[in-house]
Amino acid sequence: MEAHPTAGPLFTDLYELTMAAGYHRHRLHDQRATFSVFVRNPGLKRNYFVAAGLEGVLAELERYHFSAEDIAYLRGLDLFPPSFLEYLGRMRFSGDIWALPEGTIFFPEEPLMEITAPLIEAQLIETFVLNTLGLGALIATKASRCVHAAQGRPLVDFALRRTQGQDAGDQVARNTFLAGFAATSNVRAGKRFGLPLTGTMAHAFISVYPTETDAFRAFADTFPQNSVFLIDTYDTLEGARNAAVVAREMKARGQTLQGVRLDSGDMVALSRAVRAILDDEGLVNAKIYASSGFDEFGIDSVVKADAPIDAFGVGTKVGVSADAPYLDIVYKLVRRGGRDVRKLSPGKVTLAGKKQLFRLRDDRGRFREDIITCRDEEVDRAVKLLVPVMAGGRRLASAPPLTALRGRFEEEFADLGDRYKDIHNHAAYPVRISPQLKALQK
Amino acid sequence: MEAHPTAGPLFTDLYELTMAAGYHRHRLHDQRATFSVFVRNPGLKRNYFVAAGLEGVLAELERYHFSAEDIAYLRGLDLFPPSFLEYLGRMRFSGDIWALPEGTIFFPEEPLMEITAPLIEAQLIETFVLNTLGLGALIATKASRCVHAAQGRPLVDFALRRTQGQDAGDQVARNTFLAGFAATSNVRAGKRFGLPLTGTMAHAFISVYPTETDAFRAFADTFPQNSVFLIDTYDTLEGARNAAVVAREMKARGQTLQGVRLDSGDMVALSRAVRAILDDEGLVNAKIYASSGFDEFGIDSVVKADAPIDAFGVGTKVGVSADAPYLDIVYKLVRRGGRDVRKLSPGKVTLAGKKQLFRLRDDRGRFREDIITCRDEEVDRAVKLLVPVMAGGRRLASAPPLTALRGRFEEEFADLGDRYKDIHNHAAYPVRISPQLKALQK
């Protein structure tokens, strides 16, 4: 795994810098402040969220500094006092961070990260932190819904061509894998994050050869151990028969066709007809892959119809989380200079103070209830979910392998009740606020 | 403006590389091929699209090459023949590209780019080209709808915290500006693309001071010429009165409050009440900015209600194009080895052959009809929209300034009929296929 590219401190809204200049001028910049990150859920489109993106935040903050070029650009805006720009040029991130480990399941209004740092530092990183944790959770959550709907059938990420930009492409590959996808088509993400890669052919390959059968033969000749034939370029059933012809030729050479891919049409009817054709030809081990605009709803529908689809290629709709393409993720000041702080805008309440999040489980280990408490409270037989990950600007542990994060998610998800996994219906998981934290809000 | 960072040739789906290996093995890789890029419009959520992203494509392709590290990674996959990897290591992009200039308005099924190159090169760049042109048009189109709805009121991009990743944040800033936004809050994009920046304060700034009035005073003291007070932290009307107090103090010092910002609540009622408070205090030039989850629909609604809002901060919903978060953009082989090629999957037809796109205008210069033709056709009194932008892998002109692209869009948009600008109702712009191109499809 290679290092994350740096976003740089200019990846920020201008108002973070103007506020920072105000704090600096009034000698408030060094006051210790705590900001809390959480997700609101006004549309109720998700029953739970999956934490992801923390590694990107920590890698960035360890290297956080304004370059001479950054400062020169800011100076050129003719907006900031020179003393402030000198301060920025020397600044590093020196804060403490508590966060949910990646792969943790969380619920609306629960803190997923709390940052305690000199006010100016904590303010300046807001935009970056929200962007990174927001995209991470957006995609990991969407992907987890697909994995659940697929009931054990492998899913692969095909979204790269339509993700919202390059960074999104890589984050989609990483965070769908974290949530249980088997592989990605994204080669750059494969290299960057050590992900399994997958992919064989598109329609263009078929069109290049005089006949579909010629194209299949040419591909099998190049990749005798790694062939999945795309069979819908002309006619899917005819394509299945052509694939069977070439599969038999491969068999005679001691090779095995991995399977065929359906990319358009009625997935239930076609997969049944294609399965019959392959079985009739003795190709009972050739798999059927399907990749036709799937998301959790499409997968759920064909799985419930018992379509003989062995694996899904999942693209655009998951890569942009099309039914809910952003999280209402926010970053709120909750404590400053030794005093707890709330914002009270209409309909938008923030819980003051440094917090901890506890999860209670039932006798079988299933999630029962969460309790948001003050940071230093203890709750009997409950696990603390926010853990310290950075102190004084240094991370407290090296980055865990992605497979470990994926394992954590898998374990967590097994203990989440079925009603919260339901992709169609809203169910509000019980989240309580401790009496001590409630008292603090007065 | 600084150079675009390189995506690199590994920003691709694995199947582009496996197909490329197949072409290479069968000596088809050098055959001249043409691919056409166009947008389908199954959901009918857009009446037109705005071309954007071309500069990103050209900058990447001019520098396109596999590094030694890239090749080493691919070798490690144990999938590709050594001769193919050697070929890749030497490969550069040598193709010719015709494209719609950025800022051009186009319609579903119309070619926005055609790439003619050795088959292997044109195949390998597919994923990158689709991602870049797709995100560009997605955002420029969404932004243009907002600009239209705002009827002359300035819009600024506040989306950075919730765009789908870092690259998206910069592309949103650039492409909303291209479509007529006045400025962005994204400092990095401001530096990278030379964009005007905007931003003053968030709620945290207010919370840091003992009273709202203290916070306004502190900000005015730091930025006497650049203050917009956020007035909804506690109570919007009380906030307006506090802003007026500080504005009068500023006036006495010869300074001018730029305005106030509303960020929550009923925008129509609050803007009227706040306008009255400011006017009563003689602050008739203080502007009212509003930034509460706006997109084209929200803007349209408050503009039609005649709310006294002077400018809009536009964030998340535009930054991810929330009502239609992806384009159905495709890249199809249309010619190869001197022969025109079509794909005929159910419901998905592609126009074979190299093409040109003509636009006919009426006497007043308004768009009347488009005609898709063969590349070498001529149409009387019609403008050719596809222009050569790259030949032999070299761009044919240096990158135009973004303000020029913005100017082109503005001119184009003025000539688009009102019914196509309607954000609520679908209207299909007439697009014809020339008899010669029709004949070719037989």
Short description, anyone?
The structure is a homodimer of 442-residue chains. Chain A is an alpha/beta fold.
Characterise the protein shown here.
By secondary structure, chain A is an alpha/beta fold. Chain A folds into two domains: 14-139 and 324-440, nicotinate phosphoribosyltransferase; 150-319, Aldolase class I (TIM Barrel, Alpha-Beta Barrel), CATH 3.20.20. Chain A has 17 helices and 19 strands. Chain A has a seven-stranded antiparallel sheet. In chain A, strands 7-6-11-10-9-8 form a six-stranded parallel sheet. Chain A has a four-stranded mixed sheet with strand order 16-14-15-19. In chain A, α10 runs parallel beside α11 (236-252). Chain A is elongated and about 80 Å long. The mean pLDDT of chain A is 96. Chains A and B meet through α1, α3, α6, α7 and α8 of A and α1, α3, α6, α7 and α8 of B.
Tags for this model:
2 domains, TIM Barrel, alpha/beta, 18% strand, 17 helices, six-stranded parallel β-sheet, 442 residues, homodimer, 19 strands
CATH topology of the largest domain in chain A: nicotinate phosphoribosyltransferase
Structural class of chain A: alpha/beta
How much of the sequence of chain A is in beta strands?
Answer: 15-25%
Mean pLDDT, all residues of chain A: 96
What would you say the CATH architecture of the largest domain in chain A is? Answer: Alpha-Beta Barrel
Q: Please tell me the total number of domains of chain A.
A: 2
Structural shape of chain A: elongated
**Count of DSSP strands of chain A:** 19
Give the spatial strand order of the biggest sheet of chain A. 13-12-1-5-3-17-18
- Biggest interface and which pair forms it? A-B, 100 and 100 residues
Please give the share of residues in helix of chain A. Answer: 25-40%
Distance between the termini of chain A: 48 Å
Number of helices of chain A: 17
CATH H-level name of the largest domain in chain A... which superfamily? nicotinate phosphoribosyltransferase
- Can you tell me the residue ranges of chain A where pLDDT is under 50 for at least 5 consecutive residues? none
Cα gyration radius of chain A (Å)? 25 Å
Identify the CATH class of the largest domain in chain A. Answer: Alpha Beta
Oligomeric state of the chains? homodimer
**How is the biggest beta sheet of chain A arranged?**
7 strands, antiparallel
